[in-house]
Amino acid sequence: MRSLLAGMLALSALVTPADAQVAATRPRNVIIILSDDHRYDFMSFVRGAPAFLRTPNLDRMAAGGTHIANAFVTTALCSPSRASIYTGQYAHRHGVVDNTSGIPPGTVFFPQLLRQAGWRTAFVGKWHMGEDMDAPRPGFDHWVSFSGQGVYNDPTLNINGQRSQVRGYTTDILTEQALAWLERQRRNPQQPFFLVLSHKAVHAEFVPAERHAGKYRDVAIPYPVTMAKTEANLRGQPRWVREQRNSWHGVDYAYHGQFDFDTFYRRYAETLLALDESVGHVLDFVQRSGLAQSTLVLYLSDNGFSLGEHGLIDKRHAYEESIRIPMIAWGPGMVPAGRRAEDMVRNIDIAPTVLALAGVRPTTTMDGRSVLPMLRGQRMESPGELLYEYYWEHAFPHTPTTFALRGERFKYIYYHGVWDNPELFDVQTDPLERFNLNDIPAFQDTVSAMRARLWDTLERTGGMRIPLRRGDWQACEKLVG
């Protein structure tokens, strides 16, 4: 792996003046690095990150670009979030509402529009829409993927329709595949390119690269304040949250006892290390190949992940650790360096933003908006409130259908189909979401107004239907093998 990467980077360093001139005048290339289940605060430059954590390449990317500190997803689940990234639409509009949903006929992913406009396009990594299907999708000239969640070691890849097993660690292999494609694009600089490098990491169950296994074995785990089963933490908490503590996605019985919490936590952090290295390899290539002035690199995750907060260890729910994601934009000459942007950016904003950068008009209704001015350092009008939705899954029945509005100060969460307590949090004064204000008399006007706006938003965007999906296996069943 390392020798191959070194060879690629050595070749990319041979940049001629003609290469640099072409790179400076053609339309800007776009590289999206998409991770899985990466928390917004698990980057070592972020205030509040674990003291032991080191992510030098993400830190470097933020130092040379803009950290988008208030980035969110509209559904905190792999497939729906990815579909929202590629369509610019809420899950209730694009129809990929869970991890087993097929892609509805007529769905348009924005890379299809880029390709039609003359861009060279490639997808490398986890697709995970249509469950086990790994066949090439429309919109990409080059395709490297795998079925479903994939594996961390020795993956079977579908490369442009041909399947073969590749030995090695999946994060490294996907990075190699992406760099090899980028090298071919550098040799043909007449057209702009678009690449998605979509990692499996850091999805559970976490398997770090061999070189990183045990790196954090001796660190002290900073247990979240809301993890303890105390009266203060349980007061005002919905019943489903209390009950989930002792389930597949709870701290008291994580994955039905497969992991103790400390091991779970450490392996998550160790698995992140190879992902951080991948970001570094991509930045190295772009800089050494003379493409830095003509390339936007955007890093984000498909959702966040709880590590003990409220007694939970998953995503899906509407708490901050689940819906907030890391997001960094890097593009010398376009994106201000060392900036922290406070603007709210959603996963549904990615598609309209890339299309605006490319000068390509969307052909379908998009619920998101372009945040291109923000990437260029300008302030934008706030979108107001984030609409969040999650639909109950047969496979993981522990989390109910959830709708939420998240504004700059308040977050209102409503649970559909269960007799349970809604939640209202003041995220400015209570960022840990410890104090449910839903039943406090002084906040009843806020509760009523946000509940009305929630239903108004769903109604306005066609979200008044609850999808029903078939299922057989459930995570509550006895483990086999």
Largest sheet: 11 strands, mixed
pLDDT averaged residue by residue: 92
From N to C, what is the helix and strand string? HHEHEHHHEEEEHEHHHEHEEEHHEEEEH
Low-confidence stretches: 9-24
Q: What CATH architecture do you see?
A: 3-Layer(aba) Sandwich
Supply the number of structural domains.
1
Return Rg in Å: 22 Å
Fourth-level CATH superfamily: Alkaline Phosphatase, subunit A
Q: For the terminal residues, how far apart are their CA atoms?
A: 33 Å
The level of helicity is 25-40%
- Summing up helix and strand content along with how strands pair, one would put the structural category as alpha/beta
Q: Beta-sheet strand percentage?
A: 15-25%
Tell me the overall shape. globular
Per the CATH scheme, the topology name is: Alkaline Phosphatase, subunit A
How would you describe this structure to a colleague?
The chain has helices spanning 2-12, 17-25, 56-63, 78-87, 91-94, 110-116, 170-186, 231-234, 239-244, 261-288, 320-323, 350-358, 372-375, 444-460; strands at residues 29-35, 66-72, 120-125, 142-145, 156-159, 162-165, 193-198, 295-301, 324-325, 327-330, 339-346, 386-390, 401-406, 410-416, 423-426. The chain has 481 residues and is of the alpha/beta class. Strand 13 (401-406) and strand 14 form a beta hairpin. Residues 9-24 have low confidence and may be disordered.
